[in-house]
Design a protein that fits this description.
Number of domains: 1
Number of helices: 5
Helix content: 55-70%
Order of helices and strands: HHHHH
Low-confidence stretches: none
Strand content: under 5%
Radius of gyration: 15 Å
Length: 70
């Protein structure tokens, strides 16, 4: 059914339903910048598992690097 909705919406790429979980956890992490809150939201036993679900953008990476003082 999820695939059908994507076709109706005109998506060029068909995403698996699990991609919604990745998006939700990534958005929680981006909003809070707290891995442990994202871990709790995802109900993971380990924060290492949660890191798989957090997808930092290139802009976020560059912003973090710019903030490093040498």
């Amino acid at each position: 059914m999820f695939r059908e909705w994507q076709a109706v919406a005109g998506f060029e790429t068909v995403y698996p339903f699990h991609a919604l979980r990745h998006s939700a956890i990534t958005n929680v992490y981006r909003a809070t910048k707290d891995l442990y809150l994202a871990q709790r939201f995802a109900r993971h036993a380990s924060p290492l598992t949660t890191t798989i679900y957090t997808h930092p953008s290139d802009d976020e990476l560059y912003a973090a690097l710019r903030g490093i003082k040498t």
